[in-house]
Write a structure and sequence with these properties.
The protein has 40 residues and is of the alpha+beta class. The protein is built from one helix and four strands, in the order H-E-E-E-E. It has one domain. It is flat.
């Protein structure tokens, strides 16, 4: 559920009016960490 959870949270954060620079964090298989920067 990692990817759907991240996208669900991102949708809610943007719906609340978040602006500026954001970082999306997700853990994958084998403790893989992904931290893509976002611009809202």
């Amino acid at each position: 559920m990692s990817v759907p959870t991240v996208l669900f949270v991102l949708e809610r954060v943007l719906a609340q009016g978040a602006t500026g620079r954001l970082v999306m964090a997700a853990l994958g298989p084998g403790f893989t960490l992904s931290l893509p920067p976002l611009e809202a």
